[in-house]
Amino acid sequence: MLIDTHSHIYSEDFNDDIDDVITRAYDNDVRKIILPNIDSSSVKKMLDLVDQYPQICFPLMGLHPTSVGEDYKEELELVEFWLKKRKFYGIGEIGIDLYWERTYIEEQTEAFRHQLKLAKAYNIPVVLHVRESFEEVYAVVKEEMDERLSGVFHSFTGTLDQAQKITDLGLKIGIGGIVTFKNSGLDQVVQQIDPQHLMLETDSPYLTPTPFRGKRNESAYLIHIARKIAELHDISVNEVAKITSANAINLFGI
């Protein structure tokens, strides 16, 4: 069994064929899919999909850093509203994004810290978005770290030193399609990280792995990421599935 620990298959990219997408995932041994939220505009579509496939899809609640703007406090109030209303398996995706713009860096940091505190209050894990912001995210996480905080650095593309910092905090590392890209260099880093620290993800519809790069990503393609990690560590795909799925089950309680 494979678990896609980060997938946005509730997005409009899948409006026309979501049932086929779920079937293809299942046919490729992907039996559970974690759905991170973006902001107030994505909640309904995400929860509708969860209600349609409750044995496969597991929702997270959170405010994505690129959705942090002048109205971020209202957005955070909605996050809190939903957390009280129904079960979520984590807070995410949350973090700091300095790739798209830096206008709201202070607001991003405040929203991020607030949501880390929510995760601790609800005793659920966090899924961390880190884009050109590793040091900023790591500093806040380290300040907030205690026995109640667990989670994963999603879509990891960093260095071995950064990976060590993550695992020293007891957090997991999410590996997606970039590890299959020929010149990414991520394969050389992942080869040196014990699989016990890893979880698999697609980040669908983005970051499609080789050999489908350039096309819409979907959860069924997780198998190609698992095969790459198996190759890098000279172990079987079954072993990769066993280790990474156990990590996901233990972290998210699914």
TrEMBL record:
What SUPFAM superfamilies does the database record attribute to this sequence? Answer: Metallo-dependent hydrolases
Q: Where does a divalent metal cation 2 bind?
A: H129, H154
PROSITE patterns assigned: TATD_3
Positions of a divalent metal cation 1 binding: H6, H8, E93, D203
The alphabetical list of record keywords is: Hydrolase, Metal-binding
Looking up Gene3D superfamilies in the UniProt record yields:
Metal-dependent hydrolases
| InterPro entries documented for this protein | DNase_TatD-rel_CS, Metal_Hydrolase, TatD-like, TatD/YcfH-like
Q: Does the keyword Metal-binding apply?
A: yes
GO CC terms for this protein? cytosol
One GO MF annotation is: metal ion binding
CDD domains, alphabetized: TatD_DNAse
Which Pfam families does the entry link to? TatD_DNase
**Plastid: present as a keyword of the record?**
no
Instruction: Identify its protein family.
Output: Belongs to the metallo-dependent hydrolases superfamily. TatD-type hydrolase family.
Under the heading NCBIfam families, the entry gives:
YchF/TatD family DNA exonuclease (TIGR00010)
What PANTHER family does this protein's entry cite?
A: D-AMINOACYL-TRNA DEACYLASE, HYDROLASE TATD
Q: What is the designated name of this protein?
A: TatD DNase family protein
List the source organism. Sunxiuqinia elliptica
